[in-house]
């Protein structure tokens, strides 16, 4: 009898997963009672529902937001993926307001965001490729140029592009990279280092009045590749002027014109474009070339600022050559992260 009583007492108390399940069910029932029978559940939260619809429209029609005032369209497009952070906030507010209308409306921005960026959440890396390329804005104020050079050389890149080279530090980079790269060329504030021969090196005029872009032919074992290195002008966000990017936009147009006249079929663009692939101001470039990160990367590949990356403004883009993988490299002493890609030369040229 004593043993039977003990067993009965233990069973009635419950334990472990069964108790946790019971508590969860009670919580859900409590929440449900707050909604059931509430006739205002559909009338409340109309403002929240309107906000959800507006958020969806901004993401869906971002290309139609005018740039005339403060380059507002480009500003939104630069940080477009981050608009998704408003979705959990809207969801929380909808729950607090106990609004079924707002909850259902929140589904719309979720669907739009996934349509725009859901593909970036999967790893699209493929095996293969015969040329590894890296680009890095080394920062003119870099406190450790030698260490930065060694870090990017250790990436295994066959072709390495550096931007924002300070003239006084160029010899430092040359010495640090000489053991890895037999060939190199520097034009203004950009440079190209390669394990394979370089030819037809020339400056590319991006309408700045000084040199921040170049072009060279890399003769790799798989064929010749036209490699462009560019550092487009910086943009600023000012309260009185908005997103100031006029000079950047003009330089992007000039770079696009130069690329459109390229005769080689394999083209690789490396550089700091001070803009994302979503920014319509870079259309002269992005309409001709594919982003390696968008095609075969994993995640957003944000590269700036290095301490807490919020946007991918450092780009590797290709035409002719087939991207196989794309990734960001560990931080150096720069305020940008290096970015890398593996590509396959699909149309060999002797």
From TrEMBL:
Q: Which Pfam families match?
A: Exo_endo_phos
Q: Which residues form the Endonuclease/exonuclease/phosphatase domain?
A: 134-336
Identify the keywords attached in UniProt to this record, alphabetized: Membrane, Transmembrane, Transmembrane helix
Q: Which residues cross the membrane?
A: 46-65, 71-95, 102-121
Q: Does the keyword Transmembrane helix apply?
A: yes
What the entry lists under InterPro entries is as follows:
Endo/exonu/phosph_ase_sf (IPR036691), Endo/exonuclease/phosphatase (IPR005135)
Asked if Transmembrane is a keyword of the record, the answer is: yes
Q: Which protein, by its recorded name, is this?
A: Teicoplanin resistance protein VanJ
Which organism does this sequence originate in?
Streptomyces prasinosporus
Lineage of producing organism:
Bacteria, Bacillati, Actinomycetota, Actinomycetes, Kitasatosporales
Record gene name: vanJ
């Amino acid at each position: 009898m004593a043993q039977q009583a003990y067993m009965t007492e233990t069973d009635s108390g419950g334990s472990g997963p069964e108790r946790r399940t019971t508590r969860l069910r009670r919580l859900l029932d409590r929440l449900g009672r707050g909604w059931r029978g509430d006739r205002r559940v559909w009338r409340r939260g109309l403002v929240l529902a309107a906000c959800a619809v507006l958020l969806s429209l901004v993401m869906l029609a971002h290309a139609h937001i005018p740039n005339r005032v403060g380059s507002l369209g480009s500003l939104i497009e630069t940080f477009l993926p981050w608009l998704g952070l408003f979705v959990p906030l809207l969801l929380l507010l909808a729950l607090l307001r106990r609004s079924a209308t707002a909850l259902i409306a929140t589904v719309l921005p979720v669907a739009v965001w996934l349509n725009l960026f859901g593909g970036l959440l999967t790893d699209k890396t493929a095996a293969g490729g015969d040329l590894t390329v890296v680009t890095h804005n080394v920062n003119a104020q870099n406190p450790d140029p030698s260490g930065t050079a060694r870090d990017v050389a250790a990436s295994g890149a066959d072709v390495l592009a550096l931007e924002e080279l300070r003239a006084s530090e160029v010899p430092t980079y040359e010495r640090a990279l000489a053991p890895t790269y037999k060939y190199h060329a520097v034009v203004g504030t950009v440079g190209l280092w390669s394990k394979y021969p370089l030819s037809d090196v020339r400056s590319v005029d991006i309408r700045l009045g000084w040199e921040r872009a170049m072009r060279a032919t890399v003769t790799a074992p798989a064929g010749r590749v036209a490699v462009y290195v560019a550092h487009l002008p910086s943009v600023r966000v000012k309260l009185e002027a908005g997103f100031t990017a006029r000079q950047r936009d003009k330089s992007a147009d000039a770079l696009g014109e130069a690329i459109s006249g390229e005769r080689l079929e394999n083209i690789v663009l490396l550089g700091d474009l001070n803009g994302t692939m979503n920014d319509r101001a870079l259309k002269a470039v992005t309409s001709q070339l594919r982003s390696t990160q968008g095609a075969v990367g994993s995640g957003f590949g944000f590269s700036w600022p290095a301490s807490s990356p919020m946007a991918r403004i450092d780009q590797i883009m290709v035409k002719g050559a087939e991207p196989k993988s794309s990734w960001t490299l560990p931080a150096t002493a720069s305020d940008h992260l290096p970015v890398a890609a593996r590509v396959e030369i699909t149309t060999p040229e002797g």
